[in-house]
Amino acid sequence: MSNPTIISFNGTGIKFLGYSALDEKEHCTATSWIVFLWFPIYPLRRYKLEMKAGDEGRMFAVIDQTPKENKEIVQTYLWGWLLVPLVVLGPLVTLAFLTETKVVNTDSGLFSKLLGTGLGWTVISILLLYHWDQRRGMPGLKSPLRKIMH
What pLDDT sits at residue 137? Predict the structure, then answer.
């Protein structure tokens, strides 16, 4: 079976999401998705993949096409549209709410500290999620999240 075209630029295009845990042969399953700004839009096909670490990052060879899994599709939508945005933007949304309800005054030193913390949290979250996205599905990567999710 030939490899599908997986290409994305700045999180827009087609990419694999919903990786399963690697088995003893370094194989996993993943679904190719249409993505826009890293948000999953539509699942295309699910594949069984042989994962390899390459010079330019994650490399794969398609072993077989498998049926889509509804549980994985729902989990991918939840992660992409609910959980990740809450983690990344949660502190800034909370600060906006506290400011709007006049719990925190924008002229206070507390506001500046909370804003700096919220912005720092957002930047660090984005960097960590990007790093995780680049490494998932790689042979030898043992993620505690995989044990929780499966």
Answer: 53
